[in-house]
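Pair request: fold both.
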Amino acid sequence: MTDELVLYTNPMSRGRIARWMVEEVGQPYRAEILGFGAPMKNAQYKALNPMGKVPTLVHGDTVVTECAAICAYLADAFPQAGLAPEPTSRLRGPYYRWLFFTAGPVEAAVSNKAFGLEVPPDRARAIGYGTYADVMDTLEQAVSQGPYLLGERFSAADVYVGSQVQWGLQFGTIEKRPAFEAYGARLAGRPAAKRADDIDNALMAEMQKAG
C-alpha cells in the first residue's frame, strides 16, 4: 500500500476545484489528465469512478469522488493544513452547512439556470432548492458573514463554495452581486488558488493547441 495522492482531472472541468484543494493542503501529488469521452469511460477508470467523470482522488487505497467530498476528505486527511474545524468544534455546523448547501441547492439551481430550465412557481416547494432567487439570497447571506464562510477562518468550504461562485459569475449563472464579486476576488488572491490556476491554464492551453 502507498499513501500517494493521485488526482484524475481535466483542466476544463470541475477538477479545477480539486486541484485547488490539493494545492491548499500542500502535499505532494500526481495528476493524471484525462480527456473527455473514451479516456473517462474506459473500464479501468470507471472501476474508480463509475460515473466516468472527473475529478477522482485516490489516496492509497481510498477513492473519493465528488468535489465537495474531495475537499472535505483532504481537509480531514491532512489536519495540519488547518482547513477544517476540529470534529468537536461548533464551527463544524456552518462548515458542513455551506458545503452541502452548495453541493445541493446551489449546484442544482445554477445548473437549471444554465440550461434555461425554470421550475413553475406553484411547484417550487416540491423541489429541493425552492427557487433560484431563494438560493441566491441565502448564498449571499453566507458569504457576507465575514471574509470567509467561517468568519475570519478560511476553510475547505471556501474552496468549494468559492469555486462555484467564481464560475457562476464568469458564466452568468450566479448574479453579479457585490458580495459575490468581493468574495470571489478575495479567494482568487490565495497563493494556492493562483498555483492551481496557473497549472490548469497551462494544461488547457496545451490541449487547445494540440486540437
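--- second member of the pair ---
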Amino acid sequence: MAEFLTHPALTARHGFFTRRGGVSTGAYAELNCGLRGDDPAGNVAENRARVARALGADPADLRSLRQVHGPVVVEACAPWDALPEADGMVTRTPGVALGVITADCAPALFLDPEAGVIGAAHAGWRGAVSGVLEATAEAMIALGAARGRIEAVIGPCIAQASYEVRADLRDAVADPRFFAPGRDAGYFQFDLAGYCVARLQAAGIGASALNLDTLSDEARFFSHRRRTLAGGGPLGHQISAIVL
C-alpha cells in the first residue's frame, strides 16, 4: 500500500506520499512517481496508480506538470495532451487529483473547502522567490476561493539543518530571517519550509508545515541533495497530491 502523510488543516482527500509502498527497485525503490529518469515506465505508472487509488481517485485523473522552477500556474480539468510547463495547478473539478513531484523541494497543497477549490505547487527556492505559492492562491481565488478561507500545507522538504547554501542564494532570497550561519565561512543554512510558510502568511493565506526533512530520512524520502553528496546516480521522486 502506498504510504502517505496528512495534515488536519486539509479536510479534502490528500497525501504527502513517502517512498514506501511501490513497485520500483534499486535507487528508485519503492514509490517513485517521477516522470523523468530510467525507472521503467510500467513501474512508474503502477506507482502513480497506487497513489491515485489511495486517495479514491481514478489513476487517469491524476494530473502532473513539467516542473520548471517558475511561477506559472495552470487550471487542471480535462486531460492534457502534454504536460504543461508550470509549477502550480488548481481545479474545482471533483475527482481530479493534483500531484506535484519533489525530492527536496517543498510540495504545497491548498484547499478552500467551502468553495470546493484545490491547488498544488512545487516550490524550490527559485519557485518560491518567483512567487509560485502566491500565484497558486491567486489562481484559486479566480476560481471562486476566498483568500481568508484557503489553507496551505508545506510537505516534506529539505530542512534547514540539511540545506547548506552559498551567499548567492541567500542574496537572491533577500530575507535574512530564514538563514542561519553555516558550518564554514561563506555558507548558510536555509529554512525553505519556514520561508514558504511566511510568504503564504504574508499573502493572507493560512499556512503550516509538516517540518519533515527529506535529506536525513532516507527510509521515507528521496533526496536530490543526498544523491549529490553521495556522488550522483539515479534519483527517485515522491509525490504529494490532493483531490476533491
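Observation on the second member. The chain has a mean pLDDT of 97.
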